[in-house]
Amino acid sequence: MTMVKLEEGNFLTNWTLHPDEVAAGVQSAIDKSRNDLQLGLGKLAWQNVVEAAMLGETVISGGKIKTTLIDVVGLQAEIVMANYIEGLAVNFRKGTIGGFQISDNRIGADTNIQNVTNPNGLALYNNFIKFSTTNVWAGIGENVLPATLGGVRAVARFENHVVTSLDNYALTLSTKGSTQENHAIAILSGFVSGLSVKPKVITTGTASYTITNADVFLTCYNQATLSLYLPSAPETGKIVFIRKINSSAVNVYGNGKTINNFGTDERSSIEVGDAGNVGLFFYDGQRWTYNWFGRK
Question: What are the CA-CA distances from residue 252 to residues 1, 108, 202, 208 (Å)?
Answer without folding.
Answer: 126, 54, 13, 10
